[in-house]
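LAB NOTEBOOK - FOLDING QUEUE
OPERATOR: T.R.
BATCH SIZE: 2
PURPOSE: Compare the predicted structure-token outputs for two unrelated chains run back to back under identical settings.
PRIORITY: normal
REVIEWER: second-year student, initials M.K.

ITEM 1
FIELD SEQUENCE / FIELD STRUCTURE:
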Amino acid sequence: GTIAEQLARLPVPSMQQPLPLPQPHRNAPSSFVPVPHPDLEFFNGLGGFDKGGEEYVTILEAGRLTPAPWINVIANPGFGFQVAAEGTGYTWAENSRENQLTPWFNDPVADPTGEALYVRDEASGDLWSPTAQPIRDGGTYMARHGHGYSRFEHQAGGIAMDLLQYVPLADPIKISRLRLRNLSGQPRRLSVTAYVEWVLGTSRAASGPFIATEIDGATGAVLARNPWTPGSSDRVAFADLGGRQVAWTADRVEFLGRKGGPAAPSALAPGHSLSGMTGAGLDPCAALQCVVDLGIGETVDVVSFLGQCGSVQEVQNLIVRYRQADLDAVLDEVTAHWQSVLGAVQVKTPDRAMDIMLNGWLLYQTLACRIWARSAFYQASGAYGFRDQLQDCMALTLARPAETRRHLLRAAARQFVEGDVQHWWMPASGHGVRTCISDDRVWLAFAAASYVGASGDVSVLDEMVPFLEGPPLRPDEHDSFFQPMVAAESGSLFEHCARGLDQCLDLTGVHGLPLMGCGDWNDGMNRVGAGGTGESVWLGWLLVRTIALFAPLADGRDAERAARWRAHAVRVREALERDGWDGAWYRRATYDDGRWLGSRDSDECRIDSIAQSWAVLSGAADPVRAVTAMGSLEDHLICRDDRLMLLFSPPFDETLRDPGYIKGYP
């Protein structure tokens, strides 16, 4: 039978198991017992899916935290923020690394925050926050991560707090609507304070001394500038409390106090008030405060805005427009957009949990997080990765083909005339890294052929795109970071794809397999073939599959090339079966000295999953061997007791051989 038919006969895990359950955080009380929640799917004691899988709800009680940061990335193409279940996160404009408006801490232990909302009882001085950070008062905190928004609910002191955060489809503004409802049975006077720490660059430590703040005379918003931010020196950041602010300060030392902190700001202690300080030379922040009176059972909304524009006039226009806007209608536009994108393809499998992920969350994260934000909790690069975003955009081919098409041309423009590419680059400046990583050359043709096959848009191959030019890597040089020049030479997208394939064919090793260079799909194996002679079995599978997809597109454009590629693919396939097969699975690669990695003779990384899975994905492996290889993968790499599927096994640990920085991974 076919590979698929044979694979179907393999024993597989039950498809009726729920999603993996988060384990208790190390700070969780040992006596905690999860209580089933009837309204949530796959509830595990911390949360579960709601609204048919469109929201993930986290319930934090009794001091509990999620076992790892549980964030939502909320963005439009030029602006966004990320926010965790505890309410922590940061905001950026234009580029999530180069132009952070508030701090990205990358601290998974303390998970501090540079943004906060505070609610203070003006009679008692009691202070709360609607989220679990920065103030944790012992009550229950509920976070709802949705497509394009996050919502937080908490009650304290007889006040119900509901915080909704989102960004519009196009404008550079973060909207935070705090709804307060008086459940106490008596009239209440409360103050609401919105607080942000300014960065306006890559790090607060570097940019803070150069930030100047002022109060805008037209709107009363706090404005902040950093004239030394590369590429953003003219931009103006702003913080606004919907025009309701009656007190403010731009001095972080004043607000927090020399011995204070976000959990107990000195400026919000009883008897204290905000001074109105702004200017240069401060420890920069924006703290804006208003006072609201709530009758018994009454509800009031307090809206805060955070963003950045190209000029003061643009800031003023944006603030005025959103103060007057129907913010519910703005949110409706956001949710309608995501329903359109995520509803384009819907699947139904025997696994309800898989359906929830496939029918919303995976594609949402691909577009919002991977393509627009290019940021997450552990990495805020702001850069495009050549292979990374090509793969991401392939996932959008059916839902947003124009996005895929646009990125194919964007990626092609980062290719040097010789055929290699920038492994990653910053979109504003074009600075990036030229490397000898091997697989980048192949992905453009793979992604282009996949897009054409799914969309029928053959015309994209005729789009003209300029090449880059810059100093080539020296024989002893593995990578080089610089800003290349746009070359005088241009070529069609087809020509860009073809040059990448041509160069990959030229870089063939003694076994007839592609050279690995300073890493293939696994960048961490950067010293396996750094000497220039190590070969990659996995890249052989990718190359064979790419030629099968792309060569038919070349038949009418460059038949000689197409014939050469097909002949080479036959030789690579023969080499894969002759030298790549290890008896029960496919090997991974050879080191520069010719010794095999991913072999039964290897003391570490004896079997690597990617060589087995791509034997199937390529459609090129011997069918019987492909089934055997996947059976070996199941035997050696799927740990059912721990509910883990391993990348390879055993891990790199004590071996004297140096595969690269992957050996340093936990």
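ITEM 2
FIELD SEQUENCE / FIELD STRUCTURE:
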Amino acid sequence: MRDRSIRRTVFWAPLSLFVLLVITSLISPDAFLAVATRLNDWVLEIFSNAFTFAAFAFVLTCLWAAVSPLGKVKIGGKNATPLLSRWNWMAITLTTTIAIGILFWATAEPIYHLYNPGGLPIEPNTPEAARFSMVSLYMHWSFTPYAIYTVPSLTFAICYYNLKTPFSLSAPISALTGRPAPKLGADAIDCLALLALLFGLSASLGAGILTISGGIDRLTSLVSGPVMTGCVALAIVGAFFLSSASGLHRGIRVLSDINTKMFLLLMLFALIAGPTWEILSLGGQSFTQYIKEFVPRSLTLAPFDNEPWLKSWTVFNFANWMAWAPLAALFLGKISRGYTVREYILVNLVLPAFFSIVWMTIFGGLALNIELGSPSFLKNILDTLGPERILYGVLDYLPFATALAVFVVAISFLSYVTAADSSLDVISNLTTKDGEATDRAAPADETAKPRKTDLALKLVWALVVGFAAWIMTTLSGIEGVKMLSNLGGLPALFILIMFNITLIILGTVKLKEVTI
């Protein structure tokens, strides 16, 4: 890696620290887990409120941006042309953010909540507990997480296209000062964000590995273990490297289109084949309750202030989104040229959030309906086989269960490949000196073959992330995934707050400058 085009500090600092952590986990796994657990507990103890309050602030900022004069601003200027059609834009946004998460958690998370309703005086495994579970799914998987992505990506899009800032997470500094950020400051911000994304990518890949391994275990005589999870990790890493190496239009665009259509097909089949009325009834009641409880839950007001439950679920989810968000902002912002701020919020926040609500309604409602009708059936699967097997237990209640399980394994594989694909693209651009110039000067040339330097960088990052995810899932399963999410979210939290403040300034003090 002696290529002069590489930003050496941004490449080597996060890579060295991350690899050091992985090596340490191999040499002394017990000591590593003990230190990681203590560090994770410290993050949760000190910054829990910061995660939840910041997430709520991002929702409010998106609402303000949509109704303010900033909403009329076109990204790239009045004459800018879109890079993507609205459908492709929507599909890429949906599948490169939380898609793998909804597959894993839509059926697993509500079973946890059904038997542990957040410290509230609710009897477990009752219709009331089921509504609590669904409301919690909506809180963790709809408007708030997509707002976490929308704020930084919208801010970056305006800075990059309208104010011509560098392709860096120091873009807000450049936008506010009118000149490039000091090299040391820009490198520090990009290093922090890259380290956060490495944790987030590894955590999400861990969830993907567990989902796919659970499906293979369900479909074959193979037992899920270190060898199987290692093979799954290697297959996913190889696939998302090859996809990322093919460029935006040949890789991510095609995969996201297929991925979204597979999501829709699976969702429609489950609704029709399952107990349709019960699913819709529970969903309607829960969504109404979600609207009523959104503010008190967002601000963790009583009675929604049970700290152990919040740290294990709400903070975990928000930290995971924040770990991904800074680097995702560069990718999502880059592909948004030619659309207005209001269109951006519609496509990046509103539509994906409603899609997620429908998905959670169908699959979360299906899981809860099964558990209420057959008490402890899914709970036993959770306790004995792990959360990765719950989805397949739910599918056993539907027609063509085996074929559905095969379909879910395929869609799980494709979902993570699509999400990681975009991240590799951004990491490659961020760690090279001329990545930003190429992207903006010739945005229509996205199908050009990647440079050898880009391919080498993508291969390195793909292998590192895959190895880290395999180690953590082997050592500590889903708890390791949660720790990676929390640790990655901490540095990202402060970067996102900077983006949020910048967006407000751009929409008020600097509105004329961004209206080009």
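REVIEWER COMMENT (ITEM 2): The CA atoms of residues 4 and 213 lie 41 Å apart.
FOLLOW-UP: none requested
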